[in-house]
């Protein structure tokens, strides 16, 4: 009986482009992928690959997207943190004003930009169709803010599900659907290993693209402190979920911010390096799982 290999692609914004490097190595090595489960950017990359299992063409499509108006309209260049060693008074003032605007928006807004802009970006990257149209079985993970539960989408419109899965809290508004309030899957399942098994995988390769390091806070304000505590919780949840995979990968994306998409070449290369390093472990895990399945079905 065939060993079903599933990928659990974690969320992490731009860092998720490291998944492309991992997929490229697995593809070149001839490792068969029987299912893909993705959270947030992992859902975007996973859907693209499930529709068209060709890493080189997907990388090219991302490059075209980054040169498009759809990318510019996301306004990510205004989100990227500025690590200025000696910021001018004016620069410092602009940062303070920007943070106060966000705080003032909070009581009346559920997101900084309209969901339509994210939908347009997803439409640039993902082809039309439903889940059953993909060449590789695919599932997109979201979080329901009303129940606190993780929800795995496996049927219906694939673009819609991926948009829900990648709706970064605070940046993109959550969307109400039949009594649920869906937001980014990374809230509850940053590395969807459990969901990959739910899709029938015998062996799960989990890929975490969370930060590998965090810098010490210097003169933090309230927003900085809240953001850091949330990040720490996410790091620990990612480690916990990743530990349940048969093989765990964590590309060295350093402390890159989720919005730094223009560093995509660096992230893709990090994925390549990590996957090449883990190839012997992947082959060993596949061999062990095949032997175990043979023994089980022998009785």
Could you name the key traits of this structure?
299 residues; alpha/beta; 10 strands; 8-stranded mixed sheet
How would you describe this protein?
It contains ten helices and ten strands. About 4% of the residues have low confidence. The relative contact order is 0.20. It is of the alpha/beta class and 299 residues long. Strands 1, 2, 4, 5, 7, 8, 9 and 10 form an eight-stranded mixed β-sheet that branches. It has a two-stranded parallel sheet with strand order 3-6. It is 46% helix and 14% strand.
Set out the fold topology.
Elements: E1 5-9, H1 18-29, E2 35-39, H2 41-51, H3 55-66, H4 69-72, H5 89-105, E3 111-113, H6 115-125, E4 138-144, E5 150-153, H7 158-165, E6 170-172, E7 175-177, E8 180-184, H8 193-198, E9 203-207, H9 222-242, E10 247-249, H10 264-298
Parallel strand pairs: 1-2, 1-9, 2-4, 3-6, 9-10
Antiparallel strand pairs: 4-5, 4-8, 7-8
Helix pairs in contact: 1-3, 1-10, 2-7, 6-7
